Amino acid sequence: MSRTRLVTAALALPVGAGAAALPLGAVLAFTGQGGRGLATLVVGGLVCLLGGFVLTALVSPGGGRPAAVAGACLGAASAVAWGLLCVGDTVTQEWAVPQDRVAGSSALGSWQDGEVVVRVRPEEVTAYRLADGTPAWTWQPPRQDVVCAMSRRTGARTGLLGHAPEGGTCGSVAALDLATGHTRWTQPVTAPEGQVLEGVLEHRLPRPGLVTVAGDLAVLPHGTGWRAHGLADGRERWTAPGHPGCRPGLADGSATTVVTVSDCGRDTAPVLRALAAATGAERLRARLPATGYPRHAAVLATAPLTVWIHEQERRGTHAVLVYDAEGEVTTTIPTLGQDHEVAILPGGTSHGFPAFAARPVRSAAVVGDVLVASGVRDGDRRWTSGNNGRPYIDTRGRLVGYSLTDGRHLWTTELDDEVEVVTEHDGRVWTAAMDRLARTAPQTGALEEELTTPGVQTYAPADLWIAGGGRYVVVHEQTGDRRPAVQLLR
Known about the structure:
Shape: globular
Helix content: 10-25%
Low-confidence stretches: 195-204
Mean pLDDT: 84
Structural class: mainly beta
Largest sheet: 5 strands, antiparallel
Radius of gyration: 27 Å
Number of strands: 37
Strand content: 35-45%
Distance between the termini: 49 Å
């Protein structure tokens, strides 16, 4: 082939690419199948088409029509191949619940169990079928009570809900059958009175961690300690007295271990205990490095025993701590670093209260011996001007990984948007960030899968559930302003 024909074929490449990219991009956009490469496909196709025509016009017609056709066909094939790569990295809304009875109603938390997703509001709990989003059942607290606590996880198709008169202290717990919405059993509890935090009585708010599911057990506050009941039948299994002078703060657990934190007063360090789930026997007891009950506290894992503490004071403890079997701290990961904040709650600890008050959304998860969390930096949120001249907030975000063995910073993975939720599923970490879902390898931080959610934006913290079969459930804390209560993406 002569040099002139080669040049003609090369310059015809963008013409063919543009001619194929534009209609293909339009079809993908209309059907909602385009992924992150859709903008490149459309804009690049337009540039290639216009630029290719200009360049081809400068070439002598002596280059030959066959060479131009061959180049155009090769360019078109390349554009089609890119378009096919765009398909498959997108999930779209299969169904949505526009609002949960009351527009703008705030949810306290959610569960996904079996083929239902449950959205818990103070006055009503509603389960939706994953198949089509229709309500499966509703449950309301007795009398005029409202929900004041809920378990972080479920077990044996059962979840725990505390309820009390509005503004009162949690006094009863109901075990809810999540298949039917029926109450399996109820138990009275002696929840602690609240303390004043920034002028607000804590007990007037839902209490995260007040009740917990640990394997086949329901662990509830009882006097100064804790009491375990069979999750299925409500029968008492064991009681564990509290530390003298202390009261229940929070509990969490697994099938083998129940971890409790006791509030021992304003000037005394809280007590951390690990109990055998089968018998309630104490395995570990230690004082947390805090003066009084911290502003935020959470048990992130039971193996290894990992606890997050965030005190209100500037020079207080702000760290994730790992304990050994003797109750000694083996690893300390400061959450307020010079480069970034290891954010356990979405947006970092600058928020006054967590999203979903009874079962807070977390932007961190422990997978094996790695803590994966959102890394928040100053400047991640900044005002910018859009094409219409109206300002909007542009966000950036990242995931960070830390070793629980020695506290080393293992990796940082930059993301295009602020991380709003981090959840573990089958040994992998899933994140939601604006209009994208991503699956990350916890050991390396490598992005294994990234899914675009066109038209679906989680621009406020939302619960994310990986329901299997390529289904992703998003539960919003508040409805209204075009935000549905629940969405299923596929």
